[in-house]
Design a protein that fits this description.
homodimer, alpha/beta, 7-stranded mixed beta sheet, 4-stranded parallel beta sheet
């Protein structure tokens, strides 16, 4: 008999509870599992012994939780060092935990790795399994990560709607999208295109150096062509020295607006780019939105594919840790058009590493994605993306 | 036999095409209607004789358009003066238009009023019908306006999701919501509350003077109580002199960020309020989002109630102008819990006027809405609002 402990870390997603519930329900199905605990607020809850007992929570309630965005157990931004990981281990040992699941991104997988090594070193039989999640889609080995598909669907839905708005009232529109180092989520704006001429017309990801002059020339060209221009930029765009544009543009007295490097939860970059375009191109109607926290939490905008996979990844983690008695990181692999399978990958291959967009997903000019990216991303945003249709009607002679 | 002309004006909504399609399909069903024209980009399209012929566009295509956000015929921000209205009238006369439908807000209804008076004065038989739309919900006489319910659903869905995100990673969260003079849409954030303690914990509308010191004290109290605080503010909040806070806060050198009075399409106000809270209360994690254009255009977040009513308002306008041979503004009236009926109201009662939130919708302290507002708003956001559920599980003894 053993106890299972599960926790959620890092930025929440719309489907992170699917993974938690998938792991809990699967864990409860094993006769060798005595108790299923949840730690509140990630690793902080483990070291503080702040646990809830999920063993007998009705499955119907867990199903409601699974469909609710963000981390029901609470999350944390703590990045445990070796000492902190030792305290995690000590708490697990004290509570007779034999299987530890941590749902999170690359930082969380590094925590799992250190705790697993500590247990190994001490000869304590603790299986440690990392369950992937991140809207940034930046975990190594994985074809994609739970949470990304739903966030991508939000970005695509937002752009598809604003595209119609911008067709009705023309101008330049710039949206700032999450993703400090990886451009996948920004790139997902391309999935909004359903009709010829639909925006976004330009996409800038952090995998390419952001060139202010090129950006302005690109917008001018699109505005000349379409009478409007819709632009998706990643919050992490930076110059050739790696300095984020939000800092670089703030350094210019003309755009001296905010003066901090916090990228999320501020509209600074969007406002700076608006000022830049207005000032340099003399276009009158220039607007920006920063999609912000809505991207990772909006109620009612989940990809059904993402939900199912997040659930299955959790269940697969339970099998891995409890039945197969393995530690590792669960990874998603695409094995057909479209099908996936789940594998156990060595934590060393995932922990504290970042996957970037491959070159063949970004166009030559560095201002858009390729069709290969669109094909890659399309199944991830779900099977029932709403349509956006442009009116086709004959002109009347004046 | 006569020709019908329809146009769409002002800021788009998610259901403005429902009204257009409702009017077009109903108009086509009358034997006395010869042609149904659409003007491109509102009144600009009328004076430029920029028309499309909607008479034979397949109904199935129109149904796709109805389900697509924003103004399929294009919109305009032009506010016609008397001279411009005369040109509108002249274009209608030239093209033998006998019924003119204009879907828009209070400015658009004023245009309809002037054109109707011009036709009357000249003895030309032109029926002019204003079809209401605005996410601001600020048209006189109407219980509510098409477009508001879907935008309110967006705001409620966003807050319900971010509420869970903020429970997982605690801090102060401030969302800036559209509505320069009327606070209905900001107030709709209250519909996000599904569980005890759910945010928003504070709501500030432009119907009340915004007091910086009170705002800070309110946030401190909520943060002390909940360990977090979620705040909804209207973009139009202003001090006792009527100066918008985005201007007032920018006047302070410390927050000198933007320096313009444009309220939408900028993250300035949110960023200023974040700096204010951080600086004055010393709370570390303070974030803001500006919901921006997504509120009025997001693909896939329409209220079914709003969609139906927007469609019916369009059809009722066709009956009013074509069958009943009347000019006027179509208005929505609540006649049960929950049912509505449509009436024809004198354009003078609607044109260029703004409805504000009534006192009984705002709490005594001016920092929240009342239960009366929640009851008023609930049916408008649709019948199938997704649930947001908080985990209930027993604590484990440490």
């Amino acid at each position: 008999m053993g106890k299972v402990l599960i926790a959620q870390g890092g930025g929440p997603t719309v489907v992170i509870n699917q993974s938690m519930v998938g792991a809990v329900l699967a864990a409860r199905s094993y006769s060798q599992v005595d108790k299923v605990y949840g730690a509140l607020h990630g690793v902080d809850g483990i070291v503080n012994e702040n646990f809830v007992d999920l063993t007998d929570v009705p499955a119907s309630h867990l199903e409601d939780i699974a469909a609710t965005p963000a981390s029901a157990l609470g999350s944390t931004r703590s990045k445990p060092d070796a000492d902190f990981c030792e305290r995690i281990f000590a708490s697990c040992e004290k509570h007779d935990i034999t299987t530890f699941f941590y749902v999170g991104g690359n930082d969380s997988s590094d925590t799992v790795r250190i705790v697993a090594e500590e247990a190994e070193r001490r000869g304590y039989p603790l299986r440690c399994v990392h369950i992937p999640k991140t809207i940034d889609n930046d975990l190594m080995v994985n074809d994609h990560t739970p949470g990304f598909g739903s966030a991508a669907r939000f970005v695509a839905s937002a752009f598809a709607g604003v595209n119609q708005d911008n067709r009705a009232l023309k101008g330049v529109y710039i949206a700032v999208i999450m993703g400090r180092h990886a451009g996948f989520l920004t790139a997902a704006a391309a999935l909004a295109r359903q009709n010829p001429g639909d925006g976004p017309h330009l996409i800038y990801v952090p995998e390419r150096v952001f060139d202010r002059a090129k950006f302005l020339a690109d917008i001018k060209a699109m505005h000349d062509k379409h009478g409007r221009a819709m632009v998706a930029v990643s919050e992490g765009i930076h110059d050739e020295t790696g300095t984020p544009m939000v800092v670089q543009l703030a350094g210019n007295a003309e755009y001296d607006a905010h003066g901090n490097v916090q990228l999320s939860g501020t509209g600074a970059l969007g406002d700076q780019l608006v000022q830049l375009v207005k000032g340099e191109l003399g276009i009158k109607r220039v607007r920006s939105d920063t999609f912000g926290y809505l991207q990772r939490s909006f109620l009612g905008c989940a990809s059904d594919t993402d939900q199912k996979e997040a659930r299955e990844v959790g269940a697969f983690a339970a099998k891995t840790g409890i039945e197969d008695q393995l530690s590792g990181s669960i990874t998603i692999h695409r094995v057909g058009e479209y099908a996936v399978e789940y594998r156990v990958t060595d934590l060393l291959e995932i922990a504290a590493k970042t996957k970037h967009m491959p070159d063949h997903f970004i166009n030559e000019e560095g201002n858009d994605v390729t069709e290969a990216f669109v094909e890659y991303c399309r199944p991830l945003i779900g099977t029932d993306m709403p349509r956006s249709v442009n009116l086709q009607a004959p002109r009347v002679d004046a």
